[in-house]
Design brief:
Elements (H helix, E strand, L loop, with lengths): L1 H37 L9 H7 L2 H12 L5 H20 L5 H24 L3 H4 L2 H26 L12 H22 L7 H11 L26 H17 L2 H29 L4 H13 L2 H6 L5 H20 L6 H17 L2 H16 L4 H30 L11 H14 L5 H10 L6 H7 L6 H4 L8 H17 L1 H12 L19 H6 L10 H16 L9 H18 L2 H18 L6 H9 L1 H9 L10 H7 L1
Helix pairs in contact: 1-4, 1-7, 2-3, 5-7, 8-11, 8-12, 9-10, 10-11, 11-12, 11-14, 14-15, 14-27, 14-28, 15-16, 15-17, 16-17, 16-27, 18-20, 18-23, 19-22, 22-23, 26-27, 26-29, 27-28
Length: 650
């Protein structure tokens, strides 16, 4: 009896010890986590006068350390207590797996978030690497960010979705979801009359009307035919569609109604594409709650109806990408046979996707090596899919963009687009090291960039977070020799001051990873003022201006609210895709990765682009439900497809 009693005491002491260790860990984690909100990392340099006023070097350092922390508040104490409870709960209920991967990703997240904050405030990395004190304070704040992200990663790695069987009607589900979207988006279709249009739309309208004054792409390319402005810098297919609706508006006696009809049709097609995607997921057996969450996200988030009413290439491109992604997955998973009919349909939609946005071509090209490598053991499927991609690429680039456009006198896109990052780096180099540039280097730079101008003009055009201003100075008459000479100068200057090049790129791309940015939540509410000068009467009716302002205010409120702001921040979706990629690799989700490979390719293209906007992220956000459920569904349960859906697929 005594031995049993002593054994029970020993077990109690062990349990108590384990509980104590967990409490200590939770408190330590909570302290560092609160640093995310209470520590302001930065250089905090002190002038000699400040040190003298503080009464000496040591008192000055103490005041310097004190400046790092925000004023004490009960909010932070409550947050500290909540973190302790949360960590205790999580440490007892989740199985910690793949810790090394989680730590690496957490460190990357903390570093990029800190760098992004520094670039947002000062256009440089001084808040992180400016001096030793900045590095120390960044370590303090970064530790808290990393700890929180680590626990998020552990939660994510424990997610496994299950499919379920049950009665399902594809047509009925599609109509219900689509009907909800139309009902929620209908006010935007009215309020946003006759649609929103930006500078890209203006350029395409200028091509349609032949107004060279407002066609900025005409100055960036060499036209094949004089006085004919049409070019493929903006997709010719989309310009042609716009021309049809401009002509329709002209026939009605109101160009505004022509644009409004297009905008409504685009919104309906956008809603139908998303409804089709979510209905497909429901047909695979995923629960109503999961699909219902996605439905609420798309129905209530104002960005989607606003972009649906925005006359730009991005939405037609997104619609085509949705169908490409779904059909590609179904062929990969065996839901659709890799036959002539199925591959022809996939290839046709893939071709349309490439014709609606130039990114589509590069996305398809980058997908081919992964299809070859990961489908090597399934030769028939590999040959069918790779062949489909190659044929679509050939038709797009050679037959249409090459032969057909040349025959019609349509100019190609500006080759300066692919030099956005190097041009931006050169501009920053000029701005910071103008005196080190030789006359020969100046001549070579100006032969490619800003012909007839000066280096000072390039420096003045430099905007840290966007390369459009510098990029538009590209000389379309540059020869291959000019570009080779420029490349040699670019390399030479990089070797002299690599930090400038790195900072220029980080300043350009940080908004894809940070929570703040000067152009992080761009959406469109108005008609470009120059369009009215080309097409009389195309403007927002004054009677609808209060309603537009109300929509704009509602969106701003969501963007400023700590909880809902994440839904309108496109960098959040970048990190979601990175986390999904890690999970795919760890769980060997081949089909999920191949379905999403073009989306990841588009991210790479965007990271090499001239600026980061929400509209560039819209295609990836819309396809996120498909990638998410394919990544997290349990391997032990095979995704089923209903008989109704089989008939629909056939």
């Amino acid at each position: 009896m005594r031995e049993r009693w002593e054994e029970e005491i020993t077990m109690f002491e062990v349990k108590n010890q384990i509980h104590t260790k967990m409490c200590v860990k939770a408190v330590i984690f909570a302290i560092f986590s609160v640093f995310c909100f209470t520590v302001k990392n930065g250089t905090y340099r002190l002038a000699e006068e400040k040190i003298a006023q503080s009464g000496g070097w040591w008192p000055a350092q103490l005041s310097r350390i004190g400046a790092v922390f925000v004023n004490p508040s009960s909010v932070y104490f409550i947050l500290f207590c909540l973190f302790i409870c949360a960590f205790l709960f999580l440490m007892q209920r989740i199985s910690f797996s793949h810790c090394k991967v989680s730590i690496v990703l957490s460190v990357c997240y903390a570093l990029l978030l800190l760098l992004s904050d520094s670039y947002f405030r000062y256009n440089n990395w001084d808040c992180v690497f400016g001096n030793g004190f900045a590095f120390l304070t960044s370590l303090m704040r970064g530790a808290g960010i990393g700890i929180l992200f680590f626990f998020v990663m552990q939660l994510v790695l424990n997610i496994r979705l299950q499919t379920e069987k049950g009665a399902f009607s594809f047509g009925r589900t599609f109509l219900v979801i689509g009907g909800l979207f139309v009902l929620c988006w209908l006010p935007y279709m009215i309020i946003m009359f006759p649609g929103a249009m930006n500078a890209d739309t203006r350029d395409q309208v200028a091509q349609i009307t032949g107004t060279e004054q407002f066609c900025f792409t005409a100055r960036m390319i060499q036209q094949n035919t004089p006085d004919f402005l049409w070019n493929n810098n903006h997709p010719v297919l989309f310009t042609l569609i716009l021309k049809c609706f401009v002509m329709l508006g002209g026939a009605f006696g109101s160009y505004s109604w022509g644009f409004e009809i297009y905008s409504i049709l685009q919104s309906l097609a956008f809603a139908a594409a998303i409804a089709y995607l979510l209905t497909k997921l429901r047909s695979y057996g995923f629960s109503r709650r999961i699909i219902g969450g996605f439905v609420a996200f798309f129905a209530l988030n104002p960005l989607f109806p606003l972009y649906g009413m925005t006359i730009m290439k991005d939405i037609p491109f997104t619609i085509a990408l949705v169908f490409v992604s779904v059909w590609l997955y179904e062929i990969l998973s065996g839901k659709r046979q890799a036959g002539v009919k199925e591959c022809s349909l996939l290839g046709g939609v893939l071709l349309v996707m490439m014709l609606f946005r130039n990114n589509g071509f590069f996305m398809a090209v980058l997908a081919i090596p992964f299809l070859l490598f990961l489908l090597w053991k399934e030769k028939k499927k590999m040959c069918c899919l790779v062949g489909t991609f190659l044929i679509s690429i050939f038709v797009c680039k050679i037959a249409i963009s090459g032969l057909l456009f040349s025959a019609l006198g349509i100019g190609s896109g500006s080759s300066g687009e692919m030099f956005s990052v190097p041009f931006q780096q050169t501009a920053r180099y000029i701005k910071e090291y103008r005196n080190e540039i030789t006359e020969e280097e100046e001549e070579i730079i100006l032969s490619v960039l800003n012909t007839g101008g000066t280096l000072d003009e390039i420096a003045d055009l430099y905007v840290p977070y966007r390369a459009d201003q510098v990029k538009q100075k590209y000389n379309p008459k540059s020869t291959g020799t000019d570009l080779k000479r420029y490349a040699s100068v670019w390399v030479k200057q990089f070797l002299k001051h690599p930090g400038v090049y790195l900072q220029a790129y980080l300043n350009l791309a940080y908004c894809w990873f940070g929570m703040e940015g000067p152009a992080d939540n761009i959406y469109y509410m108005n008609v470009d003022v120059y369009i009215q000068k080309m097409l009389d009467g195309v403007k927002e009716p004054e009677v609808l201006l209060p309603a537009r302002n109300a929509v704009n205010g509602y969106t701003k409120i969501l963007d400023n609210c700590p909880i809902t702001s994440w839904l309108l921040e496109f960098s959040v979706y970048t990190w979601i895709y990175l986390i999904l990629l890690v999970v795919m690799v760890l769980r060997r989700k081949r089909e999920a990765f191949l379905t999403a490979v073009m989306l990841y390719a588009n991210y790479l293209i965007c990271l090499a682009g001239p600026v980061g906007y929400m509209r560039y992220a819209i295609p990836m956000i819309v396809c996120l439900p498909l990638v998410t459920v394919l990544t997290f569904y349990s391997d032990s349960v095979k995704i089923e497809i209903s008989q109704d859906e089989k008939q629909e697929g056939d």
